[in-house]
Write a structure and sequence with these properties.
By secondary structure, this protein is mainly beta. It is built from three helices and nine strands; from the N terminus they run H-E-E-E-E-E-E-H-H-E-E-E. A hairpin with a 3-residue loop joins strand 8 and strand 9. About 15% of the residues are buried.
Length: about 160
C-alpha cells in the first residue's frame, strides 16, 4: 500500500484520474466511462485478464456516488446513476430490461489518463488503482433519461454462504 501512495504522490501534474465502469452481463460485458473533460469520445484501456487486449470504453453520462470506506458498521451502498442505457443500446442488447441488470456485477477501475491506450505512457500490462467490485442490488430510481441502481459489495449480500 505504501508503494501505491508513493507512486501517486510522484505522478506528474496534468494527468487526470479516469474512472472506468464495466457491467458484466451473462455472455458479454459493457464498458463505459463518464467522459474526459472536453472529450466525450471512446477511450481504450488494457484488459485486466488479457493485458494485451485493449477494451473500448464508451463515453456515457454516469455518476458513481456514495463510495465510502468504513472500518466499522455496515458497508456503504453506493449508487450508480447512468443515462438510460437500454434505450441507447436496445438493438444490440436484445430484450434486456432494467430489472435484468439486478444481480449483475459492476467493476470500477481507475487509472490516470496518461495510461490509456494511445496516450504517452501506454502501459502493458495496465497500470491502475485497485479495482472495486459490486453487485447491482436494486433499482433505486427510474426516469426517462436516467436510471439509478443501488450497489452492494460482493461480500454484503443476504443469503451468501461461505464457502460459496
Amino acid at each position: 500500500m505504501t508503494d501505491l501512495i508513493k507512486a501517486v504522490q510522484t505522478q506528474e501534474p496534468g494527468s487526470a484520474l479516469v474512472e472506468l465502469i464495466e457491467i458484466q452481463l451473462d455472455d458479454s460485458t459493457l464498458y463505459f466511462h463518464a467522459g474526459l473533460e472536453a472529450d466525450v469520445t471512446t477511450v481504450q484501456f488494457r484488459d485486466k485478464i488479457s493485458p494485451y487486449t485493449a477494451r473500448e470504453y464508451i463515453a456515457l453520462p454516469l455518476e458513481l456516488t456514495g463510495l465510502e470506506k468504513n472500518t466499522d458498521g455496515a458497508s456503504s451502498r453506493p449508487t450508480l446513476t447512468i443515462a438510460n442505457v437500454l434505450n441507447i443500446f436496445r438493438g444490440s442488447l436484445g430484450d434486456l430490461t432494467n430489472k435484468d441488470l439486478v444481480g449483475k456485477r459492476v467493476v470500477r477501475r481507475q487509472t490516470l489518463q496518461k495510461y490509456l491506450v494511445g496516450e504517452t505512457g501506454d502501459a502493458s500490462p495496465s497500470i491502475e488503482f485497485p479495482s472495486e467490485k459490486f453487485i447491482i442490488d436494486r433499482i433505486s430510481g427510474e426516469h426517462k433519461v436516467s436510471i439509478s441502481f443501488e450497489l452492494a459489495s460482493v461480500m454484503d449480500l443476504e443469503g451468501m454462504v461461505l464457502p460459496n
